[in-house]
Design goal:
Layout (H helix, E strand, L loop, with lengths): L20 H12 L4 H10 L7 E5 L5 H7 L4 E6 L3 H11 L12 E5 L2 H5 L9 E8 L9 H8 L8 E7 L7 H12 L15 H8 L3 E9 L2 E3 L2 H9 L5 H6 L2 H12 L9 E3 L2 E8 L2
Helix pairs in contact: 1-9, 2-3, 6-8, 7-11, 9-11
């Protein structure tokens, strides 16, 4: 989910759904992105992120994880080629000149491929690389990640920690039952973005393809909590996971079935609560 709680995969057949990508990006930034805050905090605590950290964030999205690192004194660079709308929000968060205030020289956000960063002036080796978009939720969601990590490795020093994130086992991720709605509705397209359960070695396999050396892991509880069902629908749609379902059916049908699936997790006060566990792997550059 990617970026993104999952990567944004458009279906390989049929037209892309007509959605307001700006509104989706705002819903991501305002509703969904914060669900992984406990994960970001756990990783930063374990790796002692601080004033000496030069962090490269792959798939930085709208920049919340980068913003949290800057609050610890880190110098950050974000790269994301999947959503210009999310990157625009990241720039507003991280580059104060967008709001008419003084800019920080140690915060940069790039919209596009990693090659754009490699040629940036004054580039120095990074000592932390993060890829916080969780994998192991939809089929094919790790495609390209190994290559991106391998391309980032030359920008980091020897032994630099590289953080990968994945969904935990389905029995510990309540949201998985809701995410399966996307699979059911998009089945006519047989999309590569269909839901699948996370596998134990997903992260290790990606690290191996990227030429990285695993060096520890951990699990973090990241419940999905929403003020009401409408907020939950908007937040989950903002992940992009349901785009194939919208194409296969229509927006109204997706909204209806997603709303019905969420009612099982609605509490008496109207809020929606879905406990989940995410896993992270720390690998090292060689």
């Amino acid at each position: 989910m990617t970026p993104t709680l999952v990567r944004q995969h458009l279906p390989r057949a049929g037209a892309a759904p007509r959605v307001d990508q700006g509104a989706r990006a705002r819903d991501w930034a305002e509703i969904q992105e914060r669900m992984l805050v406990p994960l970001y905090e756990a990783v930063y605590d374990r790796l002692e992120v601080g004033s000496g950290t030069r962090l490269l964030g792959l798939g930085c999205g709208s920049g919340l994880a980068l913003l949290m690192a800057t609050s610890r004194g880190a110098a950050v660079t974000g790269v994301d080629a999947s959503s210009p709308e999310r990157v625009a929000l990241a720039r507003k968060r991280l580059l104060p000149e967008a709001w008419g205030t003084r800019a920080r020289a140690d915060c940069r956000v790039f919209d596009g491929a990693l090659e754009n960063l490699a040629g940036a002036p004054g580039e120095r080796p990074y000592n932390l690389v993060t890829a916080f978009e969780p994998i192991g939720c939809v089929a094919g969601d790790s495609e390209g990640l190994g290559e991106a990590l391998a391309a980032a490795a030359p920008l980091a020093g020897h032994g630099t920690p590289v953080v990968l994130v994945g969904w935990g086992p389905p029995e510990r991720c309540v949201a998985s039952s809701v995410l399966r709605v996307a699979t059911k509705l998009s089945e006519p397209l047989r999309s590569a973005g269909s839901w699948r359960p996370a596998l134990r070695d997903d992260l290790e396999e990606v690290a191996q393809r990227a030429g990285l050396r695993p060096d520890g892991s951990g699990r973090v509880a990241c419940p999905f909590g929403y003020a009401d069902v409408d907020s939950a629908v908007r937040g989950l749609l903002s992940t992009g996971l349901f785009d194939a379902a919208v194409t296969a059916t229509d927006q109204a049908q997706v909204d209806k079935e997603l709303t019905e699936a969420l009612h099982a997790h609605k509490r008496p006060d109207g809020t929606v609560w879905m406990p989940n566990v995410f896993r992270y792997l720390i690998a090292r550059t060689r």
